[in-house]
Write a structure and sequence with these properties.
CATH class of the largest domain: Mainly Alpha
Helix content: over 70%
Strand content: under 5%
Number of domains: 2
Radius of gyration: 28 Å
Shape: globular
């Protein structure tokens, strides 16, 4: 018998050991079993909170959808229809465009200012510590308090025109004006601090080593910012942008306090219809809420798709 034949022989009952067998053996080790136990414990700990939150969120969305379709009216006979979506067609389209504009402007400005502040914070100098402290002080302030402060500051009879000695008739309509400047300004002030702290937390644990390596290789400050800092911060900026857009798109109190009576953003329109004297307006309010939720879900899906295309995610 040749060497090739002898190599092909194996004892009776023996099985070949392949990668799948090795994985199966590794899964039986004490370390793997302990890791699996910890994973199940973690799932069990968060399951009650996730179940309650899911019940509230999904239940609310489901009730709004059913009510908007006429299947759960407060008065009258239930019947499937789209009347709630068609009753305020022009106002819905106008409010949708206005809400998208406010949310987009607020998100872009917040991300740009927040990223700049995060870069300053990671420098570790006195200016960075001051920016970090101001950002941390901004986070706990409620949006309603911030909106009132912005209104008192930049209205035609506010603090700023008085300090500058400008008459109210010559001051631009920043509060209640056609461009919704006060609303965007309040969102930008509040949410840029959020972006700054989130991005600074990500950069603090990563950027120093890569930045020093790039500097040793002769990269200028501008090149380090472009090729090191911004790529490392991009995932955190995208996640922050998703959160900010969804929040500002569905927020009510700031637009109601600092905006114009007409046209109305979708959240203000929904609240007005919900609070109307006529109970027949409730399905219309639910329809506005469903549209707001649908647009928010689309934005989240687009943001997550963009996040998966980043180099760090891949």
């Amino acid at each position: 018998m040749g060497h090739a034949d002898r190599r092909g022989l194996a004892p009776a009952g023996a099985r070949a050991v392949g990668p799948s067998t090795i994985v199966a053996i590794d899964s039986l080790t004490p370390g793997a079993r302990a890791a699996g136990s910890r994973r199940w414990v973690s799932v069990a700990l968060v399951a009650p909170a996730v179940a309650i939150a899911g019940f509230v969120v999904l239940g609310g969305i489901g009730m709004s959808l059913v009510q908007s379709l006429g299947l759960l009216p407060l008065v009258g006979v239930p019947s499937l229809s789209l009347d709630a979506y068609l009753a305020n067609g022009d106002e819905l389209l106008t409010g949708l465009g206005l809400s998208l504009g406010i949310a987009t402007a607020s998100t872009v400005l917040s991300c740009v200012i927040g990223l700049t502040a995060a870069v300053v914070i990671t420098q570790g100098r006195i200016t960075g510590r001051l920016v970090a402290a101001l950002s941390a002080l901004t986070i706990p302030v409620p949006h309603l308090i911030g909106a009132a402060a912005v209104g008192l500051l930049i209205s035609d009879a506010g603090v700023l025109p008085r300090m500058l000695g400008i008459d109210g008739t010559d001051w631009p309509d920043l509060v209640g004006g056609p461009w919704w400047v006060a609303v965007v300004l309040e969102y930008t002030w509040k949410e840029s601090a959020f972006v700054a702290l989130v991005v600074a937390g990500v950069l603090a644990s990563r950027v120093a080593r890569y930045d020093e390596t790039a500097a040793l290789l002769g990269a200028s400050r501008a090149r380090r910012l472009r090729h090191v800092v911004i790529p490392l911060a991009t995932p955190a900026v995208i996640v922050s942008a998703i959160i900010i857009f969804v929040y500002t798109f569905g927020s009510y109190e700031v637009a109601w306090l600092l905006g114009r009576p007409y046209p109305e953003p979708l959240p203000v329109l929904a609240f007005r219809l919900f609070d109307a004297i006529s109970l027949t307006s409730r399905p219309e309010a639910a329809a506005v809420a469903v549209i707001t939720t649908a647009v928010s879900l689309v934005v989240v899906a687009l943001g997550m798709a963009l996040l998966r295309r980043t180099p760090l995610w891949r």
